[in-house]
Write a structure and sequence with these properties.
five-stranded antiparallel beta sheet, 29 helices, about 55% helix
Length: about 600
C-alpha cells in the first residue's frame, strides 16, 4: 500500500512541476509536507534535506561563486573575448565557449551567465552583430562546462550525495572529468560549426532598440499643456496623471529647460511639453479630461527615439530579473519601482512577448527583461542592486578588483584540497566561504544575497522524496518492473534508455528532481542485472543536464531567453540536435571509460 501511495505522490509532484502552477521549490516543499502528513517519512526525515551535505555544499558553492564574481575575477578574461573573437561566427562561439567552459567547471553556471551577459552584449555592440547569435551558445556552453567536475552544478553535487546514501561513496572532484571534457569538446564543436546556421539574427545591436526591438514608436509621445488646461499650477504628483491613467512622464520641457527624474514635485506650467509613455487611447482620455494637446510631429522630427531618450545625462538600459531576485512575484507598482530606483519602466520583455501597456499590473518573473529610462547615475545605481542585472558591462568601480587575486586563490585552494582528498568538499567549501568574508572579497550581508534559496529549498524538499521511495519499496518496485521489461536488452541500450527517460524528465520538471527520482532506480536496476552502478549513476547525472530543447528546462536558458529576443522554437531548432548528439555519445563513452 505504501508503495503505491508514494508513487501517487510522485505522480502528483510531476503534475505540479509540469503544470507550473507553483514554483518548483514550493512544489518540493508541498511534496515534503505530504510525505510527512501521510507518515511515509518521519518529521526528522522530512527536514533532513536542510542538513544534507549536498544541500550545504551547493549553498557554499553559490557563495564562493559570488565572491569570485564580485571581485571582477571573471571580467579579467573578457579581454580575451574582445581581442580573439574575430568576425567569424564560428570563431566567436568557439572563443566564447573556450572561455566560459573551464570557468563553469568550478563556478556556478548561473553566476557565470550573469557576468557574461553584459560582456557579450557589449561585444556584440562593438562588432555590430546580433546578440541572438551568441546568447544560446553562451548558455549551452556553460551547461556543458558544468559537467566537467562534481562542483560544476548543483545537480552533480546532489548526485554525489545520493551516491553516498546508496552506499557507493561520494564522487571525487574529477570523477567524470575525462567524460565531461569529451562531451564539452564535442558540444562546442557543434555550437561553433553547426549552430551559427540555425541561430536567428533577430536582436540586432542598433541605436534604435526602442523601435526595432520593443516596438515603442507608437507608445512615446509629446503632449503640450495649453494655458487653459486644468493641469497648470499642479505638481505632477498632485495632477494624478500617473495614477489615474496608464502613462509615465519621462521628461518635462519648460522654457527650453529639460527636467528629468525625479519629476513628482515639478510644477506643470502653461506651454510645458511632457514626453510620455502611453498608448493613443489613454492619451485621448487625458485630452478629454485635462485639455492637453497631443503633438503629432514628435517621431517624425527625431532621427532615433533612443537618442532622444538618452540625451545629456539620461540613458536607457535593459535590466534582467535574476533567479534570486526579491522582486519576483511583485508588480512594478507594489515595489514603487520608479520612486525607489528613479527610473521609468518603458516595456517588459518576457520570452516571446513584449508588454508596453498596464506595466504597473505585471507581476515580475525570473528571466523578465525590463526596459528602463532615467538618469545615468540612477542606471549606474542599478548595477550594484543584487535584485537586478543590468545588461550593460558593469563599471569597474562597482567591483572589488583589488581582491580578485585573493578570491581566485581561495577558489583554487578549495579545489586543490578537495582534489587531494585532504578534506571533504563540504568542509573545504565552507572554509572557503569564511575566508571570502574574512579577506573582504564578500561582505557578510552579501552571503545571503549570493545563495539561490529557491535551489536550496528545492533540494531540501526533494531529498525526503528519495527517502520515502526507498523506505516504501517504491524504488525497488520500479527497478524490478524495468528489469522485467528490459531484461533482454544489452547494457548499452539500458543505459541509453535511462539517458532518454532522464533527459525527458529534466525538460518537464527540473534536473535536480530528475536525479532524485531516477538515480536510485538506475542503481537498483544495475544491481539486479549485475552491472556497474557507477555507469548508471553517471548516465543519470549527465542526462539531467542534457537540457537544451526548451528555455525553461535550465536556469541559464531562461536567463538568455528574453535577453536574446528568442522564440521558443529557437531552442528546439538549436538544442534538439545537440540533445540527440549527447544521447548518442554519452552511453558508449561511459562504457568505454568506466566499464559496464
Amino acid at each position: 500500500m505504501t508503495i503505491f501511495l508514494t508513487l501517487a505522490i510522485v505522480v502528483l509532484a510531476l503534475i505540479l512541476f509540469v503544470g507550473e502552477w507553483f514554483p518548483p521549490d514550493i512544489v518540493a516543499i508541498i511534496t515534503m509536507l505530504l510525505l510527512t502528513i501521510l507518515g511515509l517519512v518521519t518529521p526528522e526525515e522530512s527536514i533532513s534535506g536542510f542538513s544534507n551535505s549536498a544541500t550545504i555544499t551547493v549553498m557554499a558553492m553559490f557563495i564562493l561563486s559570488a565572491g569570485i564574481a564580485r571581485t571582477g575575477a571573471i571580467q579579467i578574461v573578457s579581454d580575451i573575448l574582445l581581442n580573439w573573437g574575430g568576425k567569424s561566427p564560428s570563431k566567436q562561439i568557439f572563443t566564447l565557449g573556450f572561455i566560459v567552459g573551464p570557468i563553469t567547471a568550478f563556478i556556478n553556471n548561473t553566476a557565470v551567465v550573469a557576468v557574461f551577459l553584459p560582456i557579450v552584449e557589449e561585444w556584440c555592440r562593438r562588432q555590430n552583430i546580433s546578440v541572438s547569435k551568441l546568447l544560446i551558445p553562451l548558455s549551452f556552453a556553460t551547461i556543458l562546462g558544468g559537467m566537467i567536475t562534481v562542483i560544476g552544478t548543483s545537480t552533480n553535487i546532489l548526485a554525489s550525495g545520493l551516491s553516498e546514501q546508496l552506499g557507493y561513496g561520494t564522487f571525487s572532484l574529477f570523477q567524470f572529468t575525462k567524460l565531461g571534457l569529451v562531451t564539452f569538446s564535442v558540444g562546442l564543436i557543434y555550437l561553433a560549426l553547426v549552430a551559427p546556421r540555425l541561430l536567428p539574427n533577430r536582436k540586432k545591436q542598433t541605436d534604435d532598440i526602442l523601435t526595432q526591438d520593443y516596438g515603442l514608436r507608437d507608445y512615446i509621445s509629446e503632449i503640450l499643456i495649453p494655458p487653459g488646461s486644468n493641469l497648470v499650477g499642479k505638481t505632477l504628483d498632485s495632477s494624478g496623471l500617473q495614477h489615474k491613467f496608464d502613462v509615465d512622464v519621462l521628461e518635462i520641457i519648460a522654457n527650453d529647460t529639460h527636467f528629468h527624474q525625479p519629476l513628482e514635485d515639478k510644477k506643470l506650467q502653461a506651454c510645458s511639453v511632457l514626453l510620455v509613455r502611453s498608448n493613443r487611447k489613454d492619451l485621448l482620455k487625458i485630452k478629454d479630461e485635462t485639455g492637453i494637446e497631443i503633438l503629432p510631429e514628435f517621431i517624425q522630427n527625431k532621427k532615433s527615439l533612443e537618442v532622444q531618450l538618452s540625451a545629456e545625462d539620461e540613458g536607457i538600459a535593459e535590466v534582467l530579473i535574476p533567479s534570486n531576485s526579491n522582486l519576483i512575484g511583485s508588480t512594478v507598482k507594489e515595489i514603487r519601482f520608479r520612486q525607489r530606483h528613479n527610473v521609468t519602466v518603458l516595456a517588459i520583455h518576457r520570452g516571446q512577448e513584449i508588454t508596453r501597456e498596464r506595466l504597473s499590473e505585471i507581476r515580475l518573473k525570473f528571466g523578465d527583461v525590463i526596459l528602463v529610462q532615467g538618469p545615468k547615475q540612477s542606471l549606474f545605481g542599478l548595477q550594484i542592486n543584487p535584485n537586478l542585472l543590468v545588461l550593460t558591462q558593469r563599471e569597474l568601480e562597482t567591483l572589488r578588483r583589488d581582491k580578485a587575486a585573493i578570491a581566485i586563490g581561495i577558489g583554487l585552494g578549495v579545489v586543490v584540497v578537495a582534489a587531494f582528498n585532504l578534506l571533504p568538499i563540504l568542509i573545504s567549501s565552507l572554509i572557503g566561504v569564511v575566508l571570502m568574508v574574512l579577506t573582504g572579497c564578500l561582505k557578510p550581508r552579501e552571503i545571503y544575497d549570493a545563495v539561490r534559496w529557491d535551489i536550496i529549498f528545492l533540494l531540501a524538499g526533494l531529498i525526503p522524496l528519495g527517502t520515502a521511495m526507498d523506505k516504501s519499496g517504491a524504488t525497488q518496485w520500479l527497478a524490478n518492473y524495468l528489469v522485467a521489461i528490459a531484461g533482454n536488452l544489452s547494457g548499452y541500450w539500458i543505459l541509453t534508455s535511462f539517458f532518454i527517460i532522464t533527459s525527458i524528465l529534466t525538460e518537464m520538471i527540473s534536473n535536480n528532481a530528475a536525479v532524485v527520482l531516477m538515480l536510485p532506480v538506475a542503481v537498483n536496476v544495475a544491481e539486479n542485472l549485475q552491472l556497474n552502478p557507477l555507469a548508471f549513476m553517471l548516465t543519470v547525472t549527465f542526462a539531467a543536464s542534457n537540457s537544451f530543447i526548451t528555455p525553461i528546462g535550465y536556469q541559464t536558458n531562461t536567463m538568455v531567453y528574453g535577453a536574446g529576443g528568442y522564440k521558443f522554437t529557437d531552442f528546439i531548432r538549436v538544442g534538439a540536435p545537440l540533445s540527440i548528439l549527447m544521447t548518442i555519445i554519452v552511453p558508449p563513452l561511459i562504457i568505454f571509460f568506466y566499464g559496464l
